[in-house]
Design brief:
By secondary structure, this protein is α+β, with helices and mostly antiparallel strands. The chain has two domains: about 5-120, no CATH class; about 130-184. It is about 30% helix and about 25% strand. It contains five helices and eight strands. The protein has a six-stranded antiparallel barrel with strand order 1-2-3-4-5-6. It is globular, with a radius of gyration of 18 Å. The protein starts with a strand and ends with a helix.
């Protein structure tokens, strides 16, 4: 499949105002994996998708011709890849980018082969610290507090709005804590 310019919005932990991007995505041969900004998403690139490493939910759609891709209740600037601005403006039939809505950014190149190896099981599993780098420098007490906090968040998070991600992070944090305690 040919690369396409898409709207990508993080849904996990947000309602309609998660971080959002407009950029050129690439697809796997099957079209079931979408590559963008150093990440890989399972899904067909239109609608709900999830990051194959973090399991966070994303909304990925085509570009709306009227130029407003965020949900009407959403807020916040949409980051747009500097390299796609001209093509984006052609798609929406405009000559100027509204900097009240958009922020220009550089997008990371995605190592598609790394994700193919992960999906096909030809590489070691991704470590918990790769998936959740915020856990890297935490002490044992801080890990315990993080687990308790995640347990509370699980109870109050809508299953359609990130509960699975919180559960996965809690379970991974518990494994990390257990491995640290078993080393001592």
């Amino acid at each position: 499949m040919k690369p396409e310019i898409k709207y990508i919005e993080l849904k996990t932990g947000y309602s309609d105002d998660g971080p959002a991007w407009i950029g050129r995505v690439e697809f796997s041969k099957s079209g079931q994996t979408v590559y963008f900004n150093g990440q890989a998403f399972k899904g067909n690139g239109h609608g709900w998708c999830f990051d194959i490493e973090t399991k966070e939910s994303y909304w990925i759609t085509g570009i709306k011709k009227r130029g407003q891709n965020r949900h009407w209740a959403g807020k916040g600037k949409v980051m747009i890849d500097k390299l796609v601005v001209d093509d984006y403006l052609k798609l929406i039939n405009s000559t100027d980018l509204d900097f009240n809505i958009f922020e220009l950014v550089d997008v990371k190149i995605t190592d598609k082969q790394r994700f193919a190896s992960i999906e096909n099981g030809t590489t070691d599993t991704v470590s918990v610290l790769d998936k959740f780098p915020d856990l890297k420098d935490l002490s044992i007490d801080e890990l315990k507090n993080t687990i308790e906090s995640l347990q509370r968040r699980e109870c109050y998070t809508n299953p359609n709005n990130g509960q699975k991600f919180i559960t996965v992070k809690r379970l991974e944090t518990e494994k990390l804590l257990e491995s640290i305690l078993n080393k001592d």
